[in-house]
Structures are given as structure tokens and as C-alpha cells.
């Protein structure tokens, strides 16, 4: 595969310190080390030979020789050390490792590898340079869910629905676990509702693994529909919980315009009603009509109860 300019630039910056540490190294060995052809290494060396510091006189250029396939650096200029991660990159790496450690609490082998990497990172940075603003959520069922995903098994969960304020039993086929703002979310196909759902792992109070399945989720689900909503900027929890089906979100003067891909208007209509009046439907019209009819039915039922 051909390199792009960025890949080649990074490799050439790595070549100089490596050659300094291995004087007399062959172009053949360099090709193996950097996973490119020997011809590409020779082109990179020719490029390096024309590089240097501003001024670009013979005194500022990198000086090297690579006769008979043997390479030596005479004047490296400023490229004497391997590239290091920036402080921002180190913070991101460390934060990622901390998250991995939290969600792999039941897998000792992975924890050992993660701890080893964290020790290496800590040697190069201030150990207190990464402070988590909040504790990363964990779940005692993460290992069970992960097993179900890898073995294509169904699971039965007991779930506390926030929008409906009730505990429900769900039979689902999990296919992905993601983390957002320190919270773990499970994306799964809900068998009874015949559509995709997102569950917050913190709200699962029971989880049992079931039998393997050959269910083709792409055929079992309904046709996806595009829904556009205007969401109040305060409702970040709605966006977090539905991140797996959100295809676009833009901040506007009226709020956050969110575009979702759903396969069940029934579910999204209940979600919009539970957050009213902080979520408004932009499209489709069928969703607005469904919500309007639901509200009328609820008001009629309420009026009937008061009159009886």
C-alpha cells in the first residue's frame, strides 16, 4: 500500500534517531524494521539528505551516507531522539487505560497488561496529571454481557426504565457495549419490541445468559426511519442514552437539533412524551400525529376518570 505524505514524514523522523542508535545498519534491516521495501527506505534516505534547519546551507542540512546498503548519520541536526507523545496525547492514553481497567475488573489477564502499560505511562508523566472528574461506572454484569456478545447468546435482564419509572423484564440480543461520559451503555435487539434499544448498565438489576441464537438482526428489525428532534441543551442524558442511533447533532439557537435513525416510532414517541416539553418533533409528521393522538387519548381517559 502506498504511503501518504504524513506517514512518510513520520517514518523519516523516526529513521534518523534509529540509525543513530544503530550505526552501520543496512537498508535491508531498516526495511524490515519499518515494514516497507528496501527501495522505499532508499527514497526516504534521499529525502532526509535534503532536509535540515532553516537556512538550508550545507551547515544546516542533515548529513548521512548510505553507500553499499550501509547507512550512517554524520550530522542529525535536531532529530537525535525518537518521537514522543505530546502531553495531551499522554493524557488521552492514560484516561483510556483507566477506563479499560474499570470495565475489565473480572478479567485478570487483561488487567495485568493494562496495569503494565499504565506503569510505563506513569514513568513518563506526572501520575496526578489525569484526574477523573467522576467515578467511571462499572457493572457486575459486564463480563456476562461480553460473553453473550462474543458467543451470540441472548440474555434476560431486569431493567429499571427511567422514562416509565418501572422495572421490566427484557429478553435481548446484545451486540455492543460503549462508554460515554463515564457511563456504560448496552446496545441490543429487544425481542418483544422487535427493535434496537440502548440500556444503561447501571440500571440493570439482574442479568442471565441464555441460549445461542442464529437470529439475523438485520432481517428481524423494521425498516429504519429518520427522525429529527429539537432537544433542550439541558437534556444531555437523552443524547447520551441514545448515542448509538444518533447520526447527527447540531447546536442551534433553539437547542440541539438531533437526527436519529430508528426502526420503531412507537418507542421514540414515548421517549419524546416523557421528556416533554423539552423535546419537540421536527419530522416526520407521522411521529407528531402519533404523539398528538396519544396525548388526546390520555386527556380523554383522565377526564373520564374525573367524571366517574
Automatic annotation (TrEMBL):
InterPro entries reported in the protein's UniProt record: CBASS_pafABC_assoc_protein, PafC-like, PafC_HTH, WCX_dom, WYL_dom
Domain PafC HTH, residue spans: 10-122
Start and end residues of each WCX domain: 243-299
Residue stretches making up the WYL domain: 141-208
Record Pfam families: HTH_PafC (PF19187), WCX (PF25583), WYL (PF13280)
Record protein name field: Unannotated protein
Native organism: freshwater metagenome
Amino acid at each position: 500500500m502506498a504511503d501518504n505524505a504524513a506517514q512518510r514524514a513520520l517514518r523519516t523522523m523516526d529513521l534518523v534517531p534509529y540509525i543513530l542508535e544503530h550505526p552501520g545498519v543496512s537498508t535491508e534491516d531498516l526495511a524490515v524494521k519499518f515494514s516497507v521495501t528496501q527501495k522505499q527506505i532508499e527514497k526516504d534516505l534521499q529525502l532526509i539528505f535534503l532536509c535540515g534547519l532553516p537556512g538550508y546551507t550545507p551547515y544546516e542540512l542533515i548529513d548521512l551516507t548510505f553507500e553499499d546498503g550501509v547507512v550512517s548519520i554524520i550530522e542529525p541536526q535536531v532529530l537525535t531522539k525518537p518521537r514522543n507523545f505530546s502531553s495531551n496525547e499522554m493524557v488521552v492514553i492514560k484516561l483510556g487505560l483507566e477506563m479499560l481497567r474499570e470495565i475489565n475488573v473480572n478479567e485478570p489477564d487483561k488487567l495485568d497488561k493494562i496495569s503494565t502499560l499504565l506503569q510505563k505511562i506513569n514513568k513518563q508523566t506526572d501520575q496526578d496529571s489525569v484526574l477523573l472528574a467522576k467515578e467511571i461506572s462499572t457493572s457486575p454484569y459486564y463480563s456476562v454481557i461480553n460473553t453473550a456478545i462474543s458467543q451470540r447468546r441472548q440474555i434476560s435482564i431486569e431493567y429499571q426504565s427511567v422514562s416509565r419509572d418501572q422495572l421490566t423484564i427484557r429478553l435481548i440480543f446484545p451486540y455492543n457495549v460503549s462508554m460515554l461520559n463515564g457511563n456504560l451503555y448496552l446496545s441490543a435487539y429487544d425481542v418483544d419490541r422487535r427493535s434496537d434499544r440502548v440500556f444503561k448498565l447501571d440500571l440493570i438489576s439482574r442479568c442471565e445468559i441464555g441460549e445461542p441464537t442464529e437470529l439475523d438482526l438485520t432481517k428481524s428489525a423494521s425498516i429504519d426511519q429518520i427522525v429529527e428532534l429539537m432537544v433542550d441543551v439541558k437534556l444531555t442524558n437523552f443524547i447520551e442514552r441514545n448515542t448509538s442511533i444518533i447520526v447527527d447533532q447540531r447546536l442551534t439557537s433553539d437547542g440541539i437539533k438531533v437526527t436519529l435513525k430508528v426502526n420503531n416510532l412507537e418507542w421514540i414517541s414515548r421517549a419524546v412524551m416523557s421528556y416533554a416539553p423539552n423535546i419537540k418533533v421536527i419530522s416526520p409528521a407521522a411521529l407528531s400525529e402519533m404523539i398528538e393522538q396519544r396525548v388526546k387519548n390520555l386527556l380523554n381517559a383522565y377526564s373520564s376518570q374525573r367524571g366517574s
